[in-house]
Design goal:
It contains 15 helices and 17 strands. With 414 residues, the chain is of the alpha/beta class. A hairpin with a 2-residue loop joins strand 1 and strand 2. It starts with a helix and ends with a helix. It binds ligand C6P.
Amino acid sequence: MIEAVKEKTALNNEALRAEFSILSRKVNGQPLVYLDNAASSQKPDAVIEAIDRYYHNEHSNVHRGVHFLSQLATEKFEAARETMRAFVNAAETREVIFTKGTTDGINLVANCMARSVLRPGDEILISEMEHHSNIVPWQMAAEQSGAILVVVDTDASGQLVMEDFYAKLNKRTKMVSVVHISNSLGTVNPVKEIAKAAHKFGAKVLVDGAQGAPHGHIDVRDIDCDFYTLSAHKMYGPTGMGILYGKAAELEALPPYQGGGEMIKDVTFEKTTYNELPFKFEAGTPNIAGAIGMAAAADWMAGVGHDKIRTIEKNLLEYATEQLSEVEGIRFFGTAEEKTSVISFLVDGTHPYDMGAIIDKMGVAVRTGHHCTQPLMAKYGIPGTVRASFAVYNTYEDIDTLTAAVKRAAKMLK
Ligand code: C6P
């Protein structure tokens, strides 16, 4: 029966898989089965080549020189901003701030809000399933401003309890910051509904899109969020790079984050005037190669097609759920109706670290532990999970290898 499912839904991803050179290497003497994509995906040749081309042929500092290479680098850098604008469907390129990644983007907003908007007694609403990157910056902002952190419940299947969200939303709520897709559970949150409700109370909305971006079809205008953050390295791009999208009016209203070159218009010892968007939030020489690599990744995803990416991931998730269900004593965490290609599980009588270490010897890379969501793990009363996460280049055979490895490891550990 399982074979029939496989036959009916051929993935047709052999050609695009061949664009990822790293996937043909061996690990511990075994062919690599890379299922740690939610932590960081691998990079297609097109992305690596774009970065290589930039450093070999096009490098100089941006926005600073009249010479040829500086202008070329600036052109490429600003073209990358336009590519990312289109990727998230922002209205204007000045709404796209280059950052080091999701963590950096959330820290920017939290820090700037703490210094401007937040007052003692104001409330910041987050959820139980947040990554530490969407908890700690808000705790710091609360400490600094006297605001209060309020947390929305998650139910046993890993879905937000919307009644609890509506009950906790009120006129003191100044910020609602929620994850688009949970990294530990795969749950897709109803961010459009959340934004609509939050705006009725005048609250601002940030969506942590670290796990949203890899699946494509991001539309910040449709969600109507005030801020959206993402990391390039989870969407086939380079590490240390990402964007913060912000509505122009919201970004204008915030004070600058860091001071330095690029973010200023005019400096005297008495007073500095700040640059316009997006440069107001981009102090110092930026990660030019990172921006070019990130745009190459967005272009690559567009070339594959966001629909195709989602279809492949959905088939992989269905097949993996079916296969892993056959493992004796397996428990899944995150069974929401709306979920992406992440499977978190534990096998009775085994510790996730031992499971991860043993299957690594069989060439299978998964993530084990709390996945930077310790409060969520505490809620479930577990130390962590084994997490397999799928990308567009994974195959049914990868899942067969994972399932066999988990069964073998479970036998060894019990
Ligand atoms: N999650 C994971 O294995 P950075 O490190 O800034 O690129 O992304 C942080 C981050 C924020 N929010 C969510 C939902 C995330 O999943 C992550 C990164 C990785 O799940 C590393 S902990």
